[in-house]
Specification:
With 100 residues, this protein is mainly alpha-helical. The chain has two helices and no strands. It is rod-shaped, with a radius of gyration of 29 Å. Keywords: Membrane, Signal, Transmembrane, Transmembrane helix.
Length: 100
Amino acid sequence: MNTTKRIFFMAACLMAAGALYAQGNGQAGITEATQMVTSYFDPGTKLVYAIGAVVGLIGGIKVYNKFSSGDPDTSKTAASWFGACIFLIVAATILRSFFL
């Protein structure tokens, strides 16, 4: 082999080795990021449920006050409150199953 071919072969080997090294670090970074997101998802889901419980209680009190005062708009308020509670539970469950 002449000198030019040897230099070209050596450069190609070094580039291939560098690409393999960089690929390993990228995979480790993606794995670490996935583990971090997964570890934060359970507390985040519990936080969403807690906020939903507080908002649900406030909505229940609002519906009770409308019902007690004889407001004709009570059924619409109750339906929207109930729908929001169901959406919150379903959305959190679907997101949990999608990401975990």
